[in-house]
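Field: COMPLEX_INPUT
Field: COMPONENT_COUNT = two
Field: RESIDUE_TOTAL = 529
Field: MODE = joint
Values follow.
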Amino acid sequence: MQRFRLLLIAPAALILAVLFAVPLAIVCIYSLLTRGVYGGAGTPWTLANYTRLADSLYAQILFHSLWMAALATLLCLLMGFPLALFISRAGPRKNLYLYLVILPFWTSFLVRTYAWMFLLRETGLVNTLLAALHLVREPLPLLYNDAAVILGLVYGYLPFMVLPLYATLERLDPHLLEAAADLGARPWTALVKVIFPLSAPGIRAGAILVFIPCLGAYLTPDLLGGGKSVMVGNLIQNQFTTARDWPFGAALSLVLMALVMLVLIGLLNRREDVL
Amino acid sequence: MKRPSPLTLYALATYAFLHLPLAILTLFSFNRSRFTIWTGWSLTWYRTAFRDTQLAEATANSLAIAIAATVAATALGTLCAYGLWKRRSPLIASGLYLSLVTPEIVMGIALLAFFQFVLRFLDIRPGMHTVILTHIMFSIAYVVIVVSARLRTFDPALEEAALDLGATPWTAFRTVTLPLLLPAVAAGALLAFALSFDDYVITSLVAGVDSETLPMVIYAIARRGANPVVNAISSLVICALGLMILVAERLRRA
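Field: COMPLEX_OUTPUT
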């Protein structure tokens, strides 16, 4: 039976080992090497790639990424919480409303990002409408800035916030709210003092699911930020392509991984193991 | 009529935010003009899209990759979840989790470095096979999680009965456990397919010249600025994936 079990796990474990663990190990090695003259990498071993991160430009991009991810997460929470509350109280039409949240998640992320390019560019629908209504004379620069990136991130990851929030709000005992009302709490007080604290696990799960992909986002800042709003993902990609500084790109990747891990450890509740 | 509550209005606005951009994108794919001014219905952009051989090739590549990766990831992921069912393995579980939370760009550059390293010793050039292997790798964790969730509600006594009656472990799995797991397996497969069909970031870093995928073509055109042909392709992708989910939902309820 033990051998049978090993046989079941082995193929998946092998793929993860060869195509995930080994590549990450290679990145670790690269991060300690010195960049070669023609873009390659070689000895001597060095920690210079990590100390370079203290450079104000790179530190700034790292902080900027953390800030963008935090802001996107907060906005997702603000938009997602009322929606999740609405769905959890929708009665028989719950499934339909839930389905409407999940549907965009199944649509291509690239297409969803492109939709905002289509709406926000200089000759896009928003600017065309504003011009037609004589509200603006020159097209507004809506695309290629931080706000456009935040918009894209919130749009892309909102379903990830709504689903775990819905799952906790769904399980909330309605008697608790009745009790709060009987004891004289107004709906707003009940929301802040009863619903909010009880939905903490959902908020935590949603925050993890939104913050982590936002922190490592590449496609959204690339298409909607267009070089004007650079996040760490773009910096990494740039080191591996245009700049051809693989050792520094590798060090950045590992720092990003470390940040992701810190967030996970900070927010994850050990009692709620999924696997 | 009752006045809708603020919560309902808020929810309505959020739904509009979620769905309007894609609805508008689809609407304008039927616009006659190449500009964002409505001049009348037309199928010009669809005709252009269908005549484009590069697009056709990329779509064929994407489908082939997604199907191959889905079949393999679903099979391996299901077996793995089953293997982890009665006895957990912290090592495998943390590996799977780590693969889930690793940013796509990090996974992409790691694989880029890996395949270049392998190329030094073996003659494996980037191409369809490297993309398929990569997609299998990043989909497995999703399948394992979906199937594991179902296994936790599964009564082990059913399988033990089969074993007591003389079935081999494999027969018991095939004839008792697997059929009951099928809805979760299908859900995992669907997820793997959607992930594979949509991936741009990792794929673009491991693809070769002969393995350009649909997202890579869409990205290349989008990068040059919005284009009505992309609207047409995007609408088709939205409809295809939407239909897939609808069918899956029906199957799940049947």
